[in-house]
Amino acid sequence: MNITVFCSAYSLDARYTGPAADFARQLGEGGHTLVWGGSNAGLMGLLADTVKAAGGKLVGVMVELLAHKGYPGADELVMTPDLPARKAELLARADAIVVLVGGLGTLDEVTEVLELKKHDLHGKPVVVLDTEGFYTGLRTQLERMDAEGFLPRPLGELITFAETPAEVFAHLATS
Questions:
Q1: What gap in Å lies between CA 92 and CA 125, rounded to an integer?
Q2: Strand order of the sheet with strand 96-99?
Q3: How confident is the model over 154-172, as a mean pLDDT?
Q4: Spatial distance between the Cα atoms of 3 and 68, rounded to a whole number of angstroms
Q5: Spatial separation of the C-alpha atoms in residues 164 and 132, rounded to whole Å
Q6: Fold classification of 2-174 (topology level)
Q7: What integer pLDDT is reported at residue 52 of this predicted model?
Q8: Which of 23, 99, 107, 137 has a CA between 20 and 30 Å from the CA of residue 37?
Q9: Model-level pTM?
Q10: In degrees rounded to 5, what are phi and psi of residue 117?
């Protein structure tokens, strides 16, 4: 399976990197391909190192502006001219999307894939690994949108929240 992962390119505290590394190890050991932002920095670099060490493949999708941060051991590194093209390529190569902790870029990516899924422009599973309750606020907001009629279909059809990497893979196995 090609699993596109949205996450931070910053170095983070062990409470976030530990679960991310566990997820990456399971991804690699499962024979999956990591499709990610292609960076060797921060959490992105940790994911790539761990997936590669566990036997998985790496497909990086980067914007040309950040080419200097490309992961040198990627099996494939795709350059795009801008962020919209990068997001489209990340989605196109995905069999599933997993969201790990991240900042504004990650939030932008997940909201875009949810908007596209809402309009039936893709049917790929979207799973959030909610490490340390990082996405509690997002989940609360999405649940409010659902309850108050802002979503044309049930929230559970758009996104799943998981507490552990094992839960992420259990959901992907049934999707």
A1: 13
A2: 76-80, 57-63, 33-36, 2-6, 96-99, 126-129, 160-162
A3: 97
A4: 24
A5: 10
A6: Rossmann fold (3.40.50)
A7: 97
A8: 137
A9: 0.95
A10: -65, -40
